[in-house]
Amino acid sequence: MWRSGLSSQKRDPAVLGDGVEHASGSGLGTIAVEAVSLAYRAPRGSGQVLVLSEVSLYVSAGEFVCVVGPSGCGKTSLLHCLAGLVAPSRGIIRVGGSVVRGPGRDRGVVFQQYALFPWLSAVRNVEFSLQMRGVARSERRALALEYLSLVNMAEAAHVMPKALSGGMKQRVALARAYAAEPQVMLMDEPFGALDAQTRRGLQLDLLRTWESERRTVVFITHDVVEAVLLGGRVVVMKAGPGEVTADVTIALGSGRDARTVDTDAFRRSKAAVEGAMESRAPDK
Ligand SMILES: Nc1ncnc2c1ncn2[C@@H]1O[C@H](COP(=O)(O)OP(=O)(O)OP(=O)(O)O)[C@@H](O)[C@H]1O
Ligand SMILES: [Mg+2]
What we know:
By secondary structure, this protein is α/β, with parallel strands linked by helices. It has a domain at 4-13 and 26-106 and 182-278: P-loop containing nucleotide triphosphate hydrolases (Rossmann fold, 3-Layer(aba) Sandwich). 32% of the residues lie in helices and 22% in strands. A six-stranded mixed β-sheet has the order 6-7-8-3-9-10, sandwiched between helices. A hairpin with a 2-residue loop joins β4 (90-95) and β5. α3 runs parallel beside α5, α4 (137-150) packs across α5 (166-179) and α7 crosses α8 (264-278). Bound molecules: adenosine-5'-triphosphate and magnesium ion (MG). Adenosine-5'-triphosphate is lined by residues 40, 51, 69, 71-77, 222. The site of magnesium ion has 3 residues, from α2.
């Protein structure tokens, strides 16, 4: 679904990220979470609460990995560590072979709440990302419109965020994240606030975009159907403290569409993930 104009804007390692030099062959687009633990200060009194315990997760370049787990198991905390918004108490995270030490343009983040600039129209929100990655002013408008077309939002290009529905805002947020051309996309329940029909439309658009671009995606969700429909792998976490308990490969291949959820293969994968969510990891 990437248009010709976009495909000519291939990712250029020299303009990526956070000023960290990426050695060639260093694994652009890979993610390595190595034995990450995270403790927050306890809400009352002294002491700390362990939120993530020895979480390890490896994602190859171009993989689409979903993370599921009960509320409070640390999914958002893990994503914040990946985004560089929170520093792990222990362990290390590498993206593209470089240690994460803070936020960087190598990682695009899409949150559940629409984080658009309210004072900029849809197209100008997308142009902002292009400006950040150094695209010349004369090229920004046309390219931003192509990114909006990608998410079926070209017709609303000049609408201000306050006049967009939730689903439309999230489409613009996706276009803006894609326009930044990050190595990896980090998504925390991006469709969580949407009705079922809008949500399915956005899921399928995201799949089509990913299938043509193969950008690495880590996608957090509560919804097992969403995880199985989108993911090549579904990583299962448990709470108290947050740990990875299973890593289920979803053998549905490419070309997934709205009918995929009605297939036996889908039902088998869903049952495998649900089974993994029910069975607790053995106590250490
Ligand atoms: N900034 C913070 N300070 C202290 N505790 C926090 C902080 N952020 C999260 N927590 C706690 O860490 C635990 C994990 O929270 P987190 O938001 O990562 O879970 P989650 O899996 O994303 O949950 P949900 O599915 O409800 O979004 C929770 O017990 C939460 O109360
Ligand atoms: Mg969360």
